[in-house]
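Subject: design request, 201 residues
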């Protein structure tokens, strides 16, 4: 088994990227899954990098996510940044934070503006009702909106901690949850194209 495991780890054939990614999904033994992830990093082709991005953001096993993130960071895979930025979109805050955490390891300034965009996210959920009559009433004093006789819409505001941690790491500054301050700071950086976004460089 050791020689087979070693062979897996040392695989560098780009054609193996697809089967390796499928193997990570199907493999029940954690240690072997990690060998497959390491092999994907060694291959480093666009297909292998894409598989690592998917594993880092979406795999159920935290160890696999961590190993895939390490491979992306170790190989400075610039190809990974656009799909990671794309993964910031959508309603799933867990996924947003996982993608943000990986972007924080990539040390790529292209991620800063998209990360600011998802620092604080609003998620509207509609519950109840059967599509019947909806009446709109405003509660006195509170200014809240009550929907009677139909679906109830609620908006949840989420502060995304991994987004903040990655922004702080990539920029060397910290405006906490103040999105306006982050945007103002970013606009000021754009005044001089020679400016590296990190204050300490």
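Subject: RE: design request

Done. Sequence follows.
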């Amino acid at each position: 088994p050791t020689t087979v495991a070693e062979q897996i780890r040392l695989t560098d054939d780009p054609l193996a990227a697809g089967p390796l990614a499928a193997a990570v999904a199907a493999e029940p033994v954690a240690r072997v899954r990690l060998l497959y992830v390491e092999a994907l990093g060694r291959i480093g082709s666009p297909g292998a990098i894409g598989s690592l991005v998917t594993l880092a953001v979406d795999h159920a096993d935290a160890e696999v996510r961590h190993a895939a993130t390490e491979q992306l960071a170790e190989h400075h895979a610039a190809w990974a940044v656009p799909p990671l930025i794309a993964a910031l979109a959508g309603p799933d805050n867990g996924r947003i934070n996982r993608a943000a955490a990986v972007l924080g390891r990539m040390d790529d300034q292209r991620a800063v503006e998209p990360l600011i965009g998802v620092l604080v996210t609003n998620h509207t959920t509609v519950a109840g009702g059967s599509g019947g009559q909806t009446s709109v009433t405003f509660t006195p004093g509170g200014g809240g909106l009550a929907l009677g006789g139909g679906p109830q819409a609620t908006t949840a505001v989420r502060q995304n901690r991994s987004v903040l941690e990655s922004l702080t790491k990539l920029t060397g500054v910290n405006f906490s949850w103040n999105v306006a301050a982050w945007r103002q700071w970013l606009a000021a950086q754009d005044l001089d194209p020679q400016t590296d976004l990190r204050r300490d460089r």
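The two ends are 48 Å apart (CA to CA).
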